[in-house]
Amino acid sequence: MKFSKRNKIQILFKTLSIFILFVSIKGGVMPADQFNKLNKEEKRVIIEKGTEAPFSGDLLNEKREGTFTCRQCGAALYYSASKFESHCGWPSFDDEIKGAVLRIPDADGRRTEIVCSNCKAHLGHVFLGEKFTEKDTRHCVNSISMDFIPEKLELEEKAVFAGGCFWGVEYYMQQINGVKSVVSGYTGGKSEAPTYEDVSYKNTGHYEAVEITYDPALVNFETLAKTFFEIHDPTQKNGQGPDIGKQYRSAVFYQDEEQKIITQKLINQLKDKGYKIATKILAPAAFYRAEEYHQDYYDNRGKLPYCHGYVKRF
Fold it and tell me: Kind of pairing, strands 146-150 and 157-163?
């Protein structure tokens, strides 16, 4: 298989990640001034010892072979072989990597907190005597406290599109072969971790958008971008169909220079056909996953989008 320049860079990055993982397992320590920057919600859980909502974490149903690492410092915490289904709403493990996790009794003595032994990031709590596995131990860990490094190299790239209500864009993008996942969320605004109410009523400047993870061996960015321009009205300003508001503006948040060039090329083609394009080409910005009831909205309800539909334009 021939790899593009971006794919080769991605392979190099993955290899470097595996090397860092190896160092962390062997006892390497990341200096405090090099810790990963945390967003508002990550700080609430990792620093302020909060708890994410049950059944909301992106690692809850992670079943691939690999290693779970600390979100703050990158230290290896758990192997996937120790993960099991407890139906509690948070990732559960019956063993940690030796020396990776510290246990600290809560002040009231009722529970035992677990933290990363390297950076003291809050992970969750550990429980004994529940008989889930032979080890009779359950590390109940917040997904947001961890990252995941898969054992097998997987090539994937991301694209971010805003085209009105994210429900409809999500629905059509999910139909494309090679698309691994589509997440509805908010991007391009001026505040961290916004809620739907913030975006809708507090003038945060965010767009409703979708973050697409796709396999470049099966589908390319140009195909995704063409589909985007054909499932919404790229000529409408400050809204989409009956949905009016700045959060419903049309935009492509390019993830690299190649995506930017391709998007501009497609817009030029549409302009040559007489379309007055309102879609903006914007630099990448922090993307925040929307509330769970927004995810897979139409699939979960067995309905079709009300303000999106396919119109051939290329």
Answer: unpaired
Q: At what angle do helices 166-173 and 221-231 cross, to 10 degrees?
A: 130
Written out in words, the top-level CATH class of the domain with range 5-150 is mainly beta
Record: fold of 157-301: Peptide Methionine Sulfoxide Reductase; Chain A (3.30.1060)
Burial environment of residue 242 by CB neighbours within 10 A (0 to 12, 13 to 18, 19 or more): exposed
Question: pLDDT tens digits, residue range 117-150?
Answer: 999 999 999 999 999 999 999 999 999 999 999 8
Domain boundaries, the chain: 5-150, 157-301
Active site residues: 140, 165
The DSSP-derived string for 100-162 is: SEEEEE-TTSS-EEEEETTT--EEEEEEES--SSTT-EEEEE-GGGEEEEESS----EEEEEE
C-alpha atoms less than 13 angstroms from C-alpha of 221 in its C-beta half-sphere: 24
Look at the pTM and tell me if it is higher than 0.90. no
Distance CA 127, CA 105 (A): 11
Phi-psi region at 91: left, alpha or beta (left = phi > 0; alpha = psi -120 to 50): beta
